[in-house]
């Protein structure tokens, strides 16, 4: 799948091809630096990260005293890896945990984010990833606000082999669905319960109240253990407006990771760096299409290679 991302980024001439062309067109001069900077900005790396990277690149290339395109490209690769930060903990909670009373309870993963970003789809695909790893999984359809959301999640569950706990009542309390899902998860002894939440963007206070309640109620069902993971689903193609909305979620709830969807639909791979810096949370999953195998754990090295090839 990283191969597909690579093809996509290549086809649209993201960072890699642009810079490669610059570096192979001859000596590196002032214009080359300007053009590299422009290419990075075009790839949505963001002004801060671009400045940081350009400073490091200029300095290191000066120290190396080289004009060899391959050497410069290697320095660029190393600096991009630093920006993506491979040291961040990107592991996803995937096994049962011990509750305060000593019993084993499932890890609970809550999916949050604005409607249309791919939350339900990502929940389905994440179930698939877990099943492929040999985990047992249950879905909770706590997006009770949109009538079709529970149906959509259930359909995904059937495709990937995961049972969905849902309410038959429209506008049921999302927290009560979460409670039921966690309880069912405990009864069935599953490893992970993934809860899809509503993505209507009210104000920060409303969001805090709603997500906070789900968290508290799930923790009660978990006999005092905490939700292990809150994944913020973010659409890579939405730009600044999407970032603004994501920030509201990140402020309302303690996000532990980002699922960046629709990376197949953009040449602007630099968004990964941008999003991580802005929200201070690692990208853990990337969506590369609408199919059930189109979600993959984020690999920083593979990603940088994809950007540069
Ligand atoms: P939700 O409202 O946030 O639950 O969003 P959905 O899960 O319903 O997804 C909205 C649309 O985005 C659907 O048409 C999905 O198929 C599509 N989608 C989700 N993830 C990806 C992705 O990684 N790539 C592409 N191309 N489309 C995606």
Describe this structure in words.
Keywords: Cell membrane, Cytoplasm, GTP-binding, Hydrolase, Membrane, Nucleotide-binding, Receptor. It is an enzyme of class 3 (hydrolase). GTP binds at residues 113-120, 196-200, 261-264. The strands form two sheets. Strands 5-4-6-3-7-8-9-10 form an eight-stranded mixed beta sheet, with helices on both faces. The two termini are 15 Å apart. It is built from twelve helices and ten strands. Strand 7, helix 10 (239-252) and strand 8 form a beta-alpha-beta unit. The chain is elongated, with a radius of gyration of 21 Å. It has 309 residues and is of the alpha/beta class. The protein binds guanosine-5'-diphosphate.
The succession of helices and strands, N to C, reads HHHHHEEEHEHEHEHEHEHEEH
- What kind of sheet is the major sheet? 8 strands, mixed
Instruction: List the total number of helices.
Output: 12
Percent of residues in helices: 40-55%
Are any ligands bound, and if so which? guanosine-5'-diphosphate
Strand order, sheet with most strands: 5-4-6-3-7-8-9-10
Mean pLDDT across every amino acid position: 88
Task: Estimate what percentage of residues fall within beta strands.
Answer: 5-15%
């Amino acid at each position: 799948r990283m191969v597909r991302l690579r093809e996509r980024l290549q086809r649209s001439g993201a960072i890699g091809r642009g810079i490669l062309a610059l570096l192979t067109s001859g000596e590196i001069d002032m214009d080359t630096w300007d053009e590299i900077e422009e290419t990075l900005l075009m790839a949505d790396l963001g002004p801060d990260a671009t400045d940081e990277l350009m400073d490091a690149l200029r300095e290191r290339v000066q120290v190396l005293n080289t004009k060899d395109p391959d050497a410069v490209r290697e320095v660029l690769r190393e600096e991009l890896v630093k920006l993506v930060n491979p040291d961040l903990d990107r592991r996803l909670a995937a096994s049962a945990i011990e509750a305060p009373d000593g019993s084993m309870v499932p890890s609970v993963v809550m999916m949050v984010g604005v409607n249309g970003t791919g939350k339900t789809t990502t929940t389905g695909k994440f179930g698939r990833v877990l099943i492929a790893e040999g985990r047992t999984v249950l879905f909770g359809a706590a997006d009770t606000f949109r009538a079709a959301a529970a149906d959509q999640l259930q359909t995904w569950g059937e495709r990937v082999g995961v049972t969905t706990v849902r309410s038959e009542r429209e506008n049921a309390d999302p927290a009560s669905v979460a409670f039921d899902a966690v309880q069912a998860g405990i009864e069935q002894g599953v490893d992970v319960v993934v809860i899809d939440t509503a993505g209507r963007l009210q104000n920060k206070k409303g969001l805090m109240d709603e997500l906070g309640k789900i968290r508290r109620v799930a923790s009660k069902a978990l006999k005092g253990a905490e939700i292990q993971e809150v994944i913020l689903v973010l659409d890579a193609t939405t730009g600044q407006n999407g970032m603004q909305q994501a920030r509201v979620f990140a402020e309302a709830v303690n996000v532990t990771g980002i699922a960046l969807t629709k990376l197949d639909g953009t040449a602007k791979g630099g968004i990964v760096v941008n999003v991580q810096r802005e929200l201070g949370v690692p990208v853990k999953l990337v969506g590369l299409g609408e199919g059930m195998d189109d979600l993959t754990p984020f690999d920083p090295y593979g990603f940088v290679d994809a950007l540069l090839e």
